[in-house]
Amino acid sequence: MESRLVLHAARDYNVRMSILPYAHKHVEKIHAYKPGKPISETARELHMRPDDIVKLASNENPLGASPVAVQAMQNTARDANLYPDGSSHVLRSKVAKHFKVGMGQVVAGNGSSELIEILCHTCLGPDTELVAARYSFTMYSLMCQLFGATFVEVENKPDWSHDLRAILRAVTSRTRLIFITNPTNPVGTMVQQAELDDFMAHVPEHVIVAFDEAYIHYADPQPDTLRYVQRGQNAVVMRTFSKAYGLAGVRAGVAITTEEIAELMNKARSPFNMNSLAQAAAVAALDDEQHLHSSVQLVRSEMKRYEQAFCRLGLSYIPSQGNFVLVKVGNGERVFNECLKRGVILRPMNGYGLHQYIRISVGTPEQNTRCLRVLAEALQA
Q1: Is the pLDDT of residue 13 over 90?
Q2: Structural domains present in the chain
Q3: Which of 12, 36, 73, 79 is most buried, with most CB under 10 Å away?
């Protein structure tokens, strides 16, 4: 029997072959999200101790996590060899009771960022559209790129808030999602109840409105968006434990919506998407109302210091309902680098096209004092 040899072309492993032609075309076009510069990296670059670095770039809680949440994580860590509860039963039950909704209306996630992705998994694809304000969370446009959908960007009002009437005019038969970031990041403005009510009365039935309320605890007054869910409208209210609850490092978030939308989102999420420590911390944090109150009061009182200091420095700023403030400094990148050299990490706004601005997160009184001193030096450098 005649043997047959199959010869393979010799491979020159010194010649690098690009995998890009085989990658998903939508992923290849994405510009990855850039978080705030971490303390550890800055400390290495400046040859400083991490404790000497002040980070006011990522809207984190300067008081840290609730002590009871930390204790809950320590207790839970003993069972780290076991898979987490894949349904996040205790957390969802706690959240349902807290917000007076059914447990089947609550979806738990690895931070609200994952919940945004899950919702986009549920609704977006080629020939669909997502509508959002220009100055809102950049993840919305990234998700559109990932799923091959079209991102429809709507200009903010002159006061930097969402223009809900313009958003309605942007809706088409292909629109599947509208995101309302309230308060909005990075500018900190709010849309109030009357305007939201009028908006929701005119949203077509084929569109889901997602309220991204990561900073809602700092707002005064706080609009009631849960009323739209309770009425059975196509609305999703997203909350995170990263900001006022101080749990950014463990990633915990929840979405409250109709049972129909919640069921779809649960089909789209990954198994065991929320780890045991995050579930335990979030449950405990909901009970620590004093820590939440202290966190909010700190931000509100220190925000006044910043506003007064900006006036003394002759700087214009956007009044904020979040735990951060956007301030106009001229050349934002230059001021950011000058502050960075002095061990204070702020956030340049070039990614939003706001080249004259920096964003400052509100820290402890000591951190804010140092930030304002360094900012004054940077402006003169």
Answers
A1: no
A2: 31-62+290-380 (3.90.1150.10), 67-287 (3.40.640.10)
A3: 73
